[in-house]
Inverse folding.
């Protein structure tokens, strides 16, 4: 059994119908998601700057290596590898969706962690409760909360 659970703004109390506040400290629902988005954007900006610096370093290494044989080939290759790694990270940061997988033994707190991240009790948790299925939790652009099961289109 698997399904999707869409939440308004990815946080908030889905059971109470409270459309503007979460269960924790009265913060607005989108606050956690907004902070994540802001942090993701800042990280992206940092990697854009970093890519520029590393690109400049690679160009300097190539020029110095060609003109004076001053820089070892291994250093040029390492700098180029770092530049490629930065490009891969930037590609990952540009994605709209990020996948996080929780796995572990029964009743070890996976659903509790997800509920804490969402600032809402959307998954069964506690003694005697078990999720026992694969779930996909996504933010919803509107204030509608719904559950999709495996063989449905709506």
């Amino acid at each position: 059994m698997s399904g999707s659970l869409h939440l308004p703004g990815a946080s908030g109390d889905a059971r109470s119908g409270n459309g503007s506040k979460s269960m924790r400290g009265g913060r607005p629902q989108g606050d956690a998601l907004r902070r994540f988005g802001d942090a993701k954007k800042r990280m992206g900006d940092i990697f854009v700057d970093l890519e520029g610096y590393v690109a400049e370093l690679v160009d300097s290494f190539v020029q110095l290596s060609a003109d004076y044989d001053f820089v070892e080939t291994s250093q040029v290759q390492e700098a180029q590898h770092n530049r490629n790694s930065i490009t891969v990270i930037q590609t990952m940061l540009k994605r709209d969706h990020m996948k996080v997988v929780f796995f572990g033994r029964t009743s070890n707190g996976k659903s509790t962690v997800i509920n804490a991240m969402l600032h809402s009790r959307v998954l069964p948790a506690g003694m005697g409760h078990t999720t026992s299925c694969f779930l996909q939790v996504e933010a919803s652009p509107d204030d509608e909360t719904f559950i999709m099961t495996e063989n449905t289109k709506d």
